[in-house]
Each structure stands twice: as structure tokens, then as C-alpha cells.
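Exercise (ungraded).
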Amino acid sequence: MMLPTLLAAADSSDAWQTFLQYALIGLANGALFALVALGYTMVYGIIELINFAHGDVFMLGSFLALTLIGAMVEYFGWNWTDPAMLWLGLGMLLIVVPVFCAALNVTIDRAVYKPLRGAPKLAPLVSAIGVSFVLMNVGLLWGGAADRHFPDLVSRENLLGEGAALSFTYKDLMVVAVTVPIMIALTLFVKGTKLGTAMRATAQDPLAAQLMGINVDRVIGVTFALGGALAGAASVIYGLYINTVSYQMGFTNGLYAFTAAVLGGIGNIPGAVLGGLVIGLARSFGSGYVGERWTSALVFVILIAILVFRPAGLLGTHTREKV
Amino acid sequence: MNRFVPPILLLVLLVVTTIVGFGGSSVGDPAVIKIVSSLPRTGSAKAQTDTIVNGIRIALAEAGYQSGGFDIEYADWDDATAGAGQWTAEAETANASRAVRDPDVMIYIGTYNSGAAKISMPILNKAQLLMISPANTWPGLTKPDKGDPGEPEIYRPTGEVSYVRMVPTDDLQGPAGAAWAKELGVQRVYVLDDNEVYGKGIATLFIEACQDLGIEVLGHESIDSKAQEFKPLMATIKGLNPDLVYFGGTTQSKGGQIAKDLVAAGPNCKLMVPDACYENAFIESAGAENVNDRVYVTFGGLPPDQLTGAGRTFVEKYKQLYGKEPEGYAIYGYESGKVALEAIRLAGVKNRDAIRKAALSIKDFDRGALGTWSFDANGDATLKTISGIAIRNGRFEFVKLLGQ
Amino acid sequence: MTAPRWTQRAPAWPLYLAVLVLYPLLVYPEHVLFEWTGISIGMQLTYLFIYAILALGLNVVVGYTGILHLGIAAFFGIGAYIAGILAVPAYPFQFPFWLTLVLSTAGAALLGILLGAPTLRLRGDYVAIVTLGFGEVTRFTLRNLEEITAGTRGLNPVPPPELPRALEGPLGLLGIEPDWALDYRLFYFLALGLLVAVIRLLRNLERSRLGRAWIAIREDELAATCMGINAARVKLSAFALGCGLAGMAGCLYATTLTSTAGPDAFDFNRSVLMLCCVILGGLGSVRGTLLGVLLLIGFDNVVAPVLDGLIQDADINPNGNRFLTFSNWKLMIFGLALILMMRFRPEGLLPSRRIEAELATAHDASGPAPAGVR
């Protein structure tokens, strides 16, 4: 199917615009992957744990948002079509859901991972898979097995004018308007604040950090809270942007986000963002120029190829494993 | 010493089950005939299979669970697992072997998915056990030259037909959809499918019919039904500017997502989907505002609200018993139950081969709700009704009969 | 009371084997169990044997050598599809079973080498993600290369093995019908026989030079390299063997099912499930892995459907309420089991002696170590 698509694109005068359209879609999706990937990468940076449950925290965030949207209509007569109420409501969702996800993530860490801090590496990993199953089951009981429609609250009016060949809608704008400030704030937090410095110190050498008077437990808690909050924000935006939530979406998105984290160099915050964008673009261009059914395979082929040639990921520095 | 305890316990357990095992009956009860169904009862196809099972139960209850002098028992088996969320080859194999080994089972109603039928058909065929499918539409299961090379003989190791179905197959539905598209003034189509047996099959048949009718096929692409969104694909489609997009797939393989991404991307074109999306779950998962007045559905048979006579009575009874409208396949469940009872009545003996032969001999059958029909030599019913349905105001609305 | 000397020395495995051999011969056709539950224990045991081979293959990679492999299902699938392509009537090959078994094993091992050679030098978690990615690529490739794999339709029918004439007489004496489709016991004994052979092979390897090298790498790669072990080659051999065993299990799976099923039967869920079996039972321990398979796959294939059936029969859930369906709680039970297991018995139910000793000393020596240090 690749050739006809290519030929058609070449024939039309706006092949360039199609290319830009793919890029826009890829960047928006990639920004979402990046938000989730940040949670993976920060946790990994601190305690070297692939937190498989992270994607499911994200999924539960979406279900909470969906439930809240329905409940606000039912109990407060919230009018989502009124612009003022819409923006106020979305603002509230963007506070409540991240707080919920952060609390959930911290609870998981305290209840499950913390007792295993001294255990061999596989123990917390398997626990994380276990938590992922439990959360998925909660999602299944909460939302049922079928895909759920997430209301289309944000307008899909084209910002470039109706009838323009290229489409950049309010929805796309929303993704950018939420994710970019969050990422900037996170970078400032990690680079600029005392807690952020403590996080980086702990990631580099937990024992030394502890000896320097850093409360490692507290740093780990903050990391989980931050990761959860980012996943929560991503889950609201995801629901509004993709308009479908299901109990299995945590797994699929978690997989891509995790891949993004590894691609960028796991433990590396700008790397996770870059990895997310690369995956978003790879999926988008893959669909456009290779064939929709190969997109997911393509992402993993790129991953393996990058790891073979750059074993520490795109931005990762090659450190020897701690012995 | 204690490491010998587990095997010794196991051995004791073995001896006990052996002793008890000889106490069990191996012949079954001569006055009882068991009908079983094997459908995906967990996961996303549950809403549809619920109504099929309800349909079977209504048919059996109408006969008072009696036929040909036998007491009829019915068991509702699941060929899906929670882990998979859909049918699995292992569960379907286990169900088929279980049916074969249970001497009381004379009729096996199933499957929902054509892929599952491919696995159970040869197993059941070896035991001469009659299989009635309420929902398989892949032509190759019965029709020579309409499926893959070797079909349908590979499903009939004994060389005899043991599988029958009432549903009009995809080789009727696909072309009927194409003809309808032509009537709707469509000149350029883009075809998608979900890369599953059913979806891919019907999409291919739709394309062939389009080429015959002179409709330009702009492209054909398979989606990954586990993907979350199809925005780039829709951008591609928008660039090609088709009049209609055809999606060969099911609600469970992201039919709803296709509908809403298509709307969001902005190509102002229609969407046509086959019968597997003919369920309210499709409208729910797509969001009514995304499908109203732009989605067309083809369905083999008449929709419940268009039925007359026996069909009407069935729908009324269903609503009364279960408090909601039946989904499209409910009536095929009902008809399967009726055929099962008729085969037992015609055979009059508790013998698998006799019941199988009796079912194949059914001619001009009019005791069900689908009208009068017969089985042909392949085991297909002679029903060829295909309905065209549109979505309006968040509901399916019958438009016309297709291909007539 | 002290036990007689011989019982302390004699191994217990012949007893288990005797039970497994006698069960299908004595309890056939399983009326009582079967009529209660509709589940043939014998047939489910056949699948358990196949999964046990798969899990033992994974155990070589994860348990012995300490490489986290998240894509074992891909090799299982590759084995199944090689067997399918070589055996189904749609292709001109139609090799006999034994040849397809050998070729599936070799084919999966070869692909394991091709994947492992460039990637096993990566650090642990990166290898995990590479294997995971490879698993997904394999699934999509099987799906999309329809001309070869028949896509989601799967290749079928995979013919059963040719039964040697000489065996028909003895089988008849045991009351076994010589028809693979009608009597599950032929596959049962085939799978059991292969499983026993694999266990024997692994037992011998464990004590061999290579087996000790695997374990040395797991314990401390740096130290092992210093002792003159070629880490890359040793790891690759474990990876190839594990993938090969998975391929063998895949071939057996396809032959037993008479179909390669579909590509989705070999997805990430399957890999994770097998990994859980190995870890629950005890990393690096053959006995543990077998127990893990028995518990987890047994739960998934036997206990869950039985309980669902009982709930259905009891008619306590006439409206199909999703909270009252047992299978809707399966993931929860599964997940909790894994969490509790790791909390209270991280070495697994039947740990290998070496890992058990190691954990005991680790706890005595240092207490809970700070995060990231181990």
C-alpha cells in the first residue's frame, strides 16, 4: 500500500502540506507520550525500577476524568458548551486528576515498592507488573470491557481557517498549550530548586546523597508524586484529544511511553521528551509513508536499531552499571 | 521424609478419582439431549453474544425444552478468556473437545468469530456432531472457491458436511454494500479493514464488487486494532478526498475510533460498515454526534424493527422478557435454536450422525422467524436478504433492502 | 522417628512421573471431574507440559543467566509458525513432525542468536526493552505478512505426527486409540516425553561447565569475565537455548491445536505470564518453574473457568453484572498474588538452593540496603 500512497502524494501539489500535517499530528501525539514517559524515566532514574504500573495510573486518571465530567453534569448541571464553564471545568480537571494520580502513585510506592528497596532488582519489577494487573482490573470493573467514548469538549475548529488544507485545531493547540509549560516547569524544578537538585543527586548515587543529608525516602516520594501528576495531566488531555478511553489503554500507551523513555536514554528528562516526540513522529510518518499496519512494528524496529548503534539511547550518557 | 508427601498425596488423589471415576456414567441419559453453544461470553463481544444466547433460550423455552420425545438441556459455554478479552484458540478447542466427549451433546451452536469456527469445525466434523453457526460470515467455511485454497474441504476431514449456518455470508454482504454505495452516488472509495479474518475478507469482497461497478478504489489499508488513534491515516484519506470510506471490521476492532477520527480529520465523506458494527455499542463508542447522518451499515437479514409475522412476535417477546431491543444477531440465535429442535425432531433418535443428516435435509423451513428457507448442499441457508441501515438521531434506521 | 536411610537419598521425581504417567491411563475418560466442571484435566495437563517447556526455556535466560527476557512469546510464536509453514497442506513441504520439531527449535534458536548477538551487550534493562520490542515486531510481522502466515486466520490444519506402526499394538493394550484428534492421550504422552527430555537436558547442563558459567555471569558479570569467561558468548548460548526451547514448545503447541492460532496468541501478555511463572516458582530452579506453571497456567486455564461455570450454574448473576463475574476479577487475583509473593517470598516458592542461600546472607549482612544499591 506504500506505493499508491506515495504516488498520490507526489501527484498532488500539496505533498508538502500532507507532510506538515503528519508532522503536526506526530508532534501532538508525541507530546502526550512524552508526558507519560517522564514518569517512567524519573522513577527509573531514582530507583532503577521499570514501573510497569505507570501506564495504568494514567488509564485510571482518564476514567476519573470521564466520571467527573459526567458527574458534574448530573449533580451541578454543568454546561460544558458554555466557554467559561468549559475552561473552568477543564482547569479543575487538570488539578483534580493529577492530584489523584499523584496520590495513587505515591500510595503504590509506599505500599508495594518501598518494602522491597533492598531486594534484588527483579522483585520490585514483578511487583510492578502485579500492580499493573490490579489497576487494570480496577479499570475493567470501573469502565467495563468495551471502549468508552470520551466527550468531545474542545472544539475541533481549524485555527488556520475553515477549508484550509492544513488542519491545526483548538484541540491540537490544547495539547501544546498544556504539555509545553508542564515540561518547562519540570525542567526548571529539577535544575533550579533544592528538591530538584536532591533528586538529581539521588539519581546519581543514592548512598552518597544519603550521606550528604538528603532524605532519600522523601525524594523518592516526590518523584512518584511528580510522575503521577504528569500522567494525570496527560490522561485528561489524552481523553479530550483522542476521545476514547478503555481499560487496556494504559498498557498500550505505557508501552510507547516506556519505549520513548528508553529511546531518549532512560533516566534522562530531556531524553524522554525527545523520545516521545520521535515515537509520535515515527508513528505518524510510518502511517503516512509506509502503511498504517506497520506503524507499531516500525516504532520498535527504530528502537532496536537506535539501541544497537547508540546503546545508551539518544541523549543518555553511557554509564557503567552499578556494581 | 516430607518431600515424599506431595507425590503420595497426589497418588491418593489419583486413586480416589479413579475409583469415583468408574462410578460415573459414560453413556449419558437416553432421554436427554444436550445442546451447547460456544460464544465469546467475556470481553468486548459480550453484548452481541448475550442477545444470541437469549434468542436460543427463547426458542428452547417456546418448545418447553422438549423435542422429538427428548428432554433438551442447554449449556452456554465461553470461548473467550478474561485475559485475552476475546476468543482464544485454546478455549475454542477445549469447548469442541468437551462437546465431542460428552455423549449427551448432539448439537453445537457456535461460533461467533469465523476464526474460531476454523478451529472447532474439523474437531466436531470428525465426531459427526452438528454445528450451527448463528454469526459466522466468512464464505470459505462452506463455499468452495470463495475462500482460501483448500477450503472448505480442510474443515471436513470425514468428507461430509456437519456445519450449517443461516447468516448470509460476506460474499453477499460485501457486494451488496458496494451496490448501495453506487446508488448513493459514490464514485471514489477508500477501504480500511481490521486485518482479521472477517474484516479483511469482507473488505476484499467489497473492493472486488466496487471494481466491477466502476467505483474507483483510492486505496486499501489494514489497521492495527490495538492502536489508539488513526489521525495520520485520516489525514492521508483526507488528501485523497474519497466520497466514502468503507471499514471492514467490528466495533471491537476500533470501528468507533475510525468513525470519530474520520469526522475529526474533516474529509466530509460517508462511512460504511458491515454487520459486525450493527450494534448499539458501535454508536456508543463512536459518540452519536460523530455518526449521525453519515454512517451506513449493511446487515444480513432484516433489522429487528422491520420484521413481520413470526419475527415480529419474537422481537416483542424478547423485549418483554429482557426489557430491551434485541441486537441484530438475536434472531439468528433464535433461528439456530429452532433449527436444532427441528433436526432433533426429524431424526427422532439420539444419534449424532442421524441428527446431522436430518439438519441438512431441512427444506422450506418456516417455523422460525426468518421466513421460509432451505439448506443448500454446502450447509448454507438460501436466505439472501441484506438490509441497508443508516444512523440517524443516535439510532439505527432501516433504509431499504439491498440487491433486490 | 527417623526415616529409613533410602528415603532420604532416593529422589522424589520418579513418583511424580509415575503419577503423571498413570493418571491418563487410569482416569479415562474422567467422567466425574468432567461432568462437574467440563474440564478435562488430562487435556489441560497437555497444555501445561507445553507451557512448562516454554517456561523452562525462559528460565535458562532469566533464571540461570539473569537476562531479563520480555519477548519469549515471540519465539514461541516463531516455533509455531515454522511448524505451521512446514506442515500444513497449503505449502509444498509437509515435513514429518520430528523434522518440523527440530527445524522449529533450530529456527527459533537461530533468530535468538540474530537478535542477541548485537543486543546482549546492552545493559540489563535495555535488553529487556529490546526483547519486548522484538516480541511486538514479530507479532505485527506475523499479522501483516499474510501471503506467508495467512495473517490473523492462522495456518491450519497442522497435521498430527505420524504414529509408528510398531507403537499401535502397545497403545492398543493400554486402551489408547491411535487417533490424535479423538484421544488426547497421544499428545499428552508426546508432550510429557519431550518435557522429561528437556528437564534432563537442563539438569545436565546445570552441572556442566557452561551451566556454571551462566550462573557466574548472573552473579557477577565483571568477576566472571575476569575469571576468563567469554561473557558475550556464554550469554548468547543461554539466549539461543532459551529461544530454541520456546520454539520447540511452539511447534508442539501448533501441532496439538492443529493450528498456529493467530498472531495475537503470542503477544506481550503471554511473555509476562511466562515470566511470572518462572519468578513465582523460583528463578533458576527447574522444580520451581514447573510449580509456577502449574499454579499460574492452572489457575488461568482450569480454576477460573470452573469458578465462572459454578457462578453461572448457581444463577446468582442473572443480569450479567460485571462485578459478579469471576473472570472479571482474575487480573486482580493474579496481580495481588505477584505482589504478595514478592513481598514475602521473593526467592520464589521452590527456590534454587543457590539463590536461597544468597538471599539469606544478604539479609543477615546488611539489612535493608539504600535504594539503588544492592
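Further reading is listed at the end of the chapter. For now, observe: The longest strand of chain B covers residues 70-78. Chain B has a mean pLDDT of 86.
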